[in-house]
Amino acid sequence: MNEIATLARPYAVAVFKRAKETNSSKQWSKKLSFLAMVLGDNKLAGMIDDPKVGKSNLLALLLDICADQLDQEGINFLTLLIENNKLSLIPAIAALFETYKAEDEGFIDIDVTTAYAFSKEAKQDFNAALEKSFGKKVNMKVAVDSSLIGGVLVRAGDQVIDGSVRGQLQQLAQRL
To answer: Which domains are delineated in the chain?
Structure first.
């Protein structure tokens, strides 16, 4: 995944800069999301790397599918990705774009894994603590994983905070 993110990053940065210049972040978000959804189709995904399908045929097919969803800049971007054999990066580009957009708007996406489900009050308190810690509004996604035994595991981009009992036991085992 890191290699894909590394390849997708320059495209995502360029699209984000263009979206900021033209005040079109929402439109680009919709375009990229739609393209990622289209390319998520297994039959279409198989055609991307098929040498029997030419670049012009692939572009024509995608333009036919995406006709009402893409403006001229979107078509130019799609053409660029096809010409550079980077079409398979669209889901990663879309994800990175959303991350940049959220950061620019003062939000941060955080994945929280807990051993037990939060009560409504505990979730609000934890969300407030994360907002204070990160200094941004938090979009928190919570998942329950009983293998943690207790505590929480927090992932915010590349940063991981392991406050789980399982993580503490693993650290203890390494020290011993």
So the answer is: 2-102 (1.10.520.20), 107-175 (3.30.360)
